[in-house]
Design a protein that fits this description.
8 helices, globular
């Protein structure tokens, strides 16, 4: 797969071959055809922003019809962003696990996949579909505006980042369309979650963070305080997202981690550690929130008891 252009965390822009059904199957799309981009630029204050369409991705090449297809399907190459372990040792594993778990919970994370990059020993990358349809960078999100206009998803994102111990959610690690309805959010960049970024400290990190929120910029992660955390001023959506997290099945956690072992991306020992971490975090999630209520600085009055000890029998 051709890779071009470098960035942080070993990012590369790639042309990911995908089978896609085009909305206009009779029209041949040429690479670089601006009409194939379902987007236009709008002015938002002093910034130019992408007007993103929900679940829309950029077609970079049309490779013709699917043979014997009855629905007018065509083969299309979609733009993707690929990350490697070049600068963050566990980047590929962290991104893959986060995408699988986040999408299970119903969060708007672009779909992705592990891709072979060749070499000896073989190397792997994590490629997710590019959602900035113009191919340009996205501006920082206005965190307070995001929470005000998307309170449900904003709460879900905070809960998700707690679950995966993601200390790197700043205003450029999510995207949102807030200038017109329907308001939309896209979540990305999880290379520092779960195992973290240190090759030697991953298992210790999981142990040290098991009873911490891991999103407050504390002494263990020493990274960012979550950009949306202080804007959450109501616990009205907590029960919804707690329920979704608590329904995350063991088999889903297990098989997702098995994918990484099968490709040689993590070891059996690392698999056991991350499975135990995720199961424990899921099972103790309400208590984890209860123990750290003070970190939700925007909530002045709690009407919801998140967790209570079971009565003795």
């Amino acid at each position: 797969m051709p890779l071009s252009g470098a960035g942080s965390c070993g990012k590369w822009v790639v042309a990911a071959g995908k089978k896609a059904a085009l909305r206009e199957p009779s029209r041949s799309l040429q690479k670089g055809d601006p009409k194939s981009r379902a987007t236009r630029l709008v002015s938002d204050g002093n910034q130019t922003r992408n007007r993103m369409q929900k679940r829309a991705y950029r077609i970079v090449a049309d490779r013709g019809p699917v043979k014997d297809g009855a629905t007018g399907a065509r083969y299309a190459d979609l733009a993707a962003v690929c990350k490697t372990n070049e600068t963050v040792y566990y980047c590929v594993a962290n991104e893959y696990l986060a995408e699988r778990i986040g999408r299970f919970l119903g969060l708007p994370i672009p779909p992705g996949a592990i891709i072979p990059l060749g070499g000896d020993p073989p190397a792997f990358g994590y490629a997710c579909l590019e959602f900035a349809l113009t191919g340009e960078g996205l501006p920082p999100v206005d965190a307070s505006d995001c929470v005000a206009k998307l309170p449900d998803l904003s709460t879900g994102l905070v809960m998700f980042d707690i679950l995966i111990a993601n200390p790197d959610r700043h205003v450029q690690n999510l995207a949102a369309v807030l200038h017109e309805q329907p308001y939309e959010m896209t979540i990305f960049d999880h290379g520092h979650a779960l195992f973290g970024h240190s090759k030697d400290g991953a298992i210790k990190r999981l142990t040290d963070l098991q009873d911490r929120l891991a999103i407050t910029g504390g002494s263990v992660t020493k990274q960012n305080r979550h950009c949306l955390l202080d804007g959450i001023d109501d616990a009205v959506y907590f029960a919804k997202w707690i329920s979704r997290i608590e329904t995350l099945p063991n088999h889903y956690i297990d098989t997702t981690c098995d994918d990484l072992v099968g490709d040689g991306i993590i070891s059996d020992h690392e698999r056991s550690a991350i499975v135990a971490f995720l199961r424990r975090r899921r099972d103790r999630f309400p208590k984890l929130l209860e123990d750290h209520k003070a970190e939700f600085r925007g909530i002045k009055q709690w009407v919801l008891r998140l967790w209570a000890p079971r009565p003795a029998t």
